[in-house]
Amino acid sequence: KMTQQMRDLQLAQARKPPGPSSPNAAKRLYRNLSGKFRVNYTSFDEGSLVGRGEKEKLRKSYLFQSNAALFEAVELQDLDRVQEMLKHYSPEELDLNTPNSEGLLPLDIAIMTNNAPIARALLQAGAKESPHFVSLESRSLHLSTLVREAEQRVNELMAQVVNEAPNADCSEKEKQLKAWEWRFRLYKRMKAGFEHARVPDAPSSVHLSVASSSSLQVTFWEPLSVNSAVVTKYKVEWSCSPTFSPLLGEAVIDKLKDLHFTIQGLVSGTAYHIRVSAYNMKGWGPPQASVPPFAIPSNWREYDGRAPRRRGQAEALDHLLGQVKTVHQHCICHEPCKNQPQSRKHSVSKSLKHLFHPGSKFLKTLKRGLYLTAIFYKDDNILVTHEDQIPVVEIDDTYSCLLMQDFLWLTKVSCMWDEILWLRQCVTVSQSSCSCILQTRFKMLLAISQMQGLLGIQDLGQVFFEPIKDKQGNILIVTLKEVKTNQTFESVRWVPICKLQTSRKSVSSPEEPTALDTLLISLQDKLAYHQRSSHALSAGLYLGYLKLCSAVDQIRVLVPEQLPNILCHVKIRSNPNISREEWEWLQKMASVEEPVPTEPDVDRSQNPLFQELQVAIKELMTLVNIPLQEAKDFRLYSQEVLDFGDQVSFLLLLPPSDDVCTAPGQNNPYTPHSGFLTLPLQIFELGEER
């Protein structure tokens, strides 16, 4: 039967483009794929071919040649070429899991020649073993047949070469003979590799951790032995019994990029035993029990039955905002506001000024007052007006000092740019109180509306954490927004940032730059801050350092420059969950007022969280430049774990109670001097929410 299949395949191959038959042919084909042929395939994607039949024909030819080149690279044990092809081509383009004419896949050849590096590279890319090998006997029979057929073909060609007189046909037969001799040696090597292989050893280590109140996470490492064949999959089993009888469930992992698995749907409070075994072409090896030997799904909230802090808060706030809007729909806030007598003179002067400036425009210069500027950037370009100016509008030309409360109010408004018109209507009706604060905030809303109208966009981005001030009495509030799509804006255009900085003519001296000049000089720093403040942490449990400092009108929090939307921190582990048992241990440690664990303790060496905290605290103290001996006076915040979604959680490390918040003029021994900045607490909270 195998002989007939081989003959049928040879006849079929005679009717299609010939594949490579030697190592040299593989190299030529790979060069072809890397150069000329890739260009042809790209042009096919761009629609340069008209007929669908021609496109399909070219696609099949491309898949055939790339698949053949991969087989040749694996057979030649050329790791660099295999990695290069896996990097530049998708599994679909390489036809990675389609058997060749011998019924083999690239992974089959790699594992049966015991080429572990190539086999691992293929497994990382999603390669599979041939589904035809349902048993050890079927694989052995298939290999024996391939060896026998190849040997028979070699003998036939050798006889033809010996008996025929030298001519063109004889030369071609000699080439075929060399190719089959090479393939015969390959099949014999594969057969020997299979016969000498044995089942894999147990995984070298299996770590078990609690992922949630209904799941456990299993992390494992490949066997240490190098004498067995390459492992192609793993099996995770779980049971409530240490004897694994009965077995509650199992899962086979054949995607080996990350050797971990999360068991879902478990019962909270129930102990589960876990074991993992490895598989290769000779079968399943012995299982390895986990460390610890069992775990109980739980969460720290189960310790005292505490509900999540933010459960339903977003929905409640949306409902409350909807109620407020409903109340204001038919009130007098939709009527034009009446100016107060004491502001009439100023209103008349403004009206006369508008007679000469009928349309709202961006400002070119600042003339002592409060202003708003919007920075929109994309890559190395920035939006400017047609006069090559950064978009600036006036808020109030009589406002000489910005109160921090007004600025913080504006940062909150930035969370609802789409509601500016409604907010204006609400603030308008409140002006009857003649409040100076309300007057200023109403002008802020007017300026925002003006900026939105001139740019033709509602979302002005994020407010920079501090306004820019100069000695001429100007205050500039800056908003920042990164544009990632090809948006069109009104009255503005894109220019390179470097061109704007070099072409702008300063109207101030270097000793006393204007707010606009200061903005241009520090523009890259502000853009870097904006980009960093939108970065998210990877999943895991972190140790954060809480340090505050107070001023006359605000409290500021210490944050790293590289990630200003998060407290100073280090990662404890990749699993963000704190189990009930771990939280109970933390509570006991806090109740006896023990110092922060910085030195090894033999009695607690078996507690994984204790060991992880020791490492994290040392790393955090080094990060913030605090001597380790001073950390003995620090303490862990034991009231709750700070959860940021389901994937990130924080434990807080606090300085001594008298030093958590430093007062003005107070000596501050627990604040680092470089690589960090302090943000107003309200700004930090808004950045955290974003």
UniProtKB/TrEMBL annotation:
Superkingdom: Eukaryota
Domain called Fibronectin type-III: residue spans: 202-299
Any GO CC annotation of this UniProt entry: spindle
PROSITE patterns the record matches: FN3 (PS50853)
Coiled-coil segments on the chain, per record: none
Residues covered by region (Disordered): 1-25
One of the protein's GO biological processes: regulation of establishment of bipolar cell polarity
One matching Pfam family: fn3
Listed transmembrane segments: none
Protein's name according to its UniProt entry: ANKF1 protein
